[in-house]
Each structure stands twice: as C-alpha cells, then as structure tokens.
C-alpha cells in the first residue's frame, strides 16, 4: 500500500472517531459501565497518547502530547485511579483533530524507514501505522459498546 493510501485511511478513521465523539452525549463520557474498564473520555485520550508515542519517537521526533496525558491515558491506567482532573473532552477531541495532520506531515516520506525505537516485532514506520490504525478502530468499537451500555444504564 502506498503512503497516500495509509494517510487516507488514517484521515478517514480519525474523521470517523471525531464525528462519533461529537455525537456522544457529554453526560455519559465519564461513565465506566459495569464489566468495562474505562470511559469514553479515557479511550479518546488513549488513542491520542498511543499515536503520539507510537509515531513521533519512532521517527526520532519529540512527543507532542503533554506528560499529564500519558499519566492519565497510557495503557494500564484507568479513570478509577486518576488523582488529577483530566483534560476537557473538547480539548482531547481538538488535539485528536490537530494530531492527524501533524502525524502525516512528520511521517511523509518515512513509512519505509526503520523505526528508531523498538516496538514488538515492528521494524518500519509503516508497521506502526498499521498497528495504530487497528488500535484506533478497536478503541472506537470499545467506545461504541460503552456508549450503548451507558445510555441503557442512564435510561433505566
């Protein structure tokens, strides 16, 4: 797959994620339904942090997202353990919007380059894109299940 197709896929998926986030009622974004580990806000923050850490250091660039986001949204964290106020939903969604083009601009011409930091069995920047495209789709699917459960719980 050529670079432009990777970037098109990324833009389309990110646009879906943002459009979905925009239609989510704000009164349920922090609900963690029974049997689930995280909230919609956490999943959106996690997508942001995962792409930030998954691309920029791999192309020898600095991360763009503040450390406080990593403290709240990296793998293994949970809203149950937060000791500080998370960023607003609007701020997270705005950062997701801006991140799309930031990543594409920084990665342009580099998808076939070896990654600068090891990650699982991934060898090239292209592999990081594939991993994070699947990861974002997974978290979008999780958020859809969370929204459905949260709406059901709040209407009962």
UniProtKB/TrEMBL annotation:
It holds the Pfam family DinB_2. Residues 9-141 form the DinB-like domain. InterPro entries: DinB-like, DinB/YfiT-like. This is DinB-like domain-containing protein. It comes from Paenibacillus phyllosphaerae.
């Amino acid at each position: 797959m050529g670079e432009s197709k990777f970037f098109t896929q990324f833009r389309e998926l990110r646009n879906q994620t943002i459009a979905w986030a925009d239609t989510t009622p704000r009164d349920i974004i922090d609900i963690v339904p029974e049997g689930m580990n995280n909230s919609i806000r956490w999943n959106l923050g996690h997508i942001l942090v995962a792409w930030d850490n998954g691309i920029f250091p791999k192309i020898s660039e600095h991360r763009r997202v503040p450390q406080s986001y990593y403290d709240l949204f990296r793998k293994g964290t949970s809203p149950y353990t937060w000791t500080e106020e998370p960023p607003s939903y609007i701020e997270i969604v705005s950062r997701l919007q801006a991140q799309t083009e930031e990543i594409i601009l920084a990665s342009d011409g580099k998808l076939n380059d070896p990654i600068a930091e090891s990650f699982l069995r991934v060898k090239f920047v292209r592999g990081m894109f594939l991993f994070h495209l699947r990861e974002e789709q997974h978290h979008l699917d999780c958020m859809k299940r969370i929204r459905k459960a949260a709406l059901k719980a709040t209407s009962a």
